[in-house]
Structures are given as structure tokens and as C-alpha cells.
Amino acid sequence: MGLKIEYIWATRLPKGHVYDHPWEKDCKVFVLESGDGRAGQWVYETRNIQKDFKTAFGTEFPGVLAIGIQTDTDHSNELVTVYYSEPILRKK
């Protein structure tokens, strides 16, 4: 599949933490939010995907092939309601 970046809202990991995905090869995970302090609020995230890719893999960004958005609580077994707006990609 190639190199992949995931952005998450973690329960316990600190905001800003970057780590290797434990079950997916060539996938790095960036923690954008942590805990429930901002739960119930609209949270807007802005990322420089090129910079994040270079940070994660130490190589130049080849471009976006796909964007996936999901809510996954299978490790925490928590109930959650999530609303998303469409992602916007902009060139600098």
C-alpha cells in the first residue's frame, strides 16, 4: 500500500506524540488531541502534510493518494458520537 500517516485523538497518549503504528508496517501516527478536555466541541485541525511526511519518514512527500476518515473505539470499548466536516486540501 505504501507509506501512510494517521492523525488521531488519543485517550491517554500525549498531544504531539508521533509513533509507529503497532499493527501496520510503514504507518506513522500523529496524536493531534488527547483526553476529553475538548470533547463536545468542534475542533479544527490544520496540518502541513508535506512536513508531517518528512518528519515521519525522512523523505520527500510523493503526494496524496487517498484520505480516509474514521472513528475507532475498538481498543477503548467506549461509546462515541462524532461529526465530521469534509477535509480541505490547499497548496501553499
Rg from alpha-carbon coordinates: 14 Å
How much helix, percentage-wise, in residues?
under 10%
Can you count the beta strands?
Answer: 3
- Spatial separation of the terminal alpha carbons: 27 Å
- Helix/strand order, N-terminal first: EEEH
In order across it, which strands form the biggest sheet? 1-3-2
Structural class: mainly beta
Oligomer: single chain
Query: Mean pLDDT, as a whole number?
Result: 88
Features:
three-stranded mixed sheet, mainly beta, single chain, about 90 residues, 1 helix
List the helices and strands and how they pair.
Layout: E1 4-10, E2 18-20, E3 27-34, H1 49-57
Parallel strand pairs: 1-3
Antiparallel strand pairs: 2-3
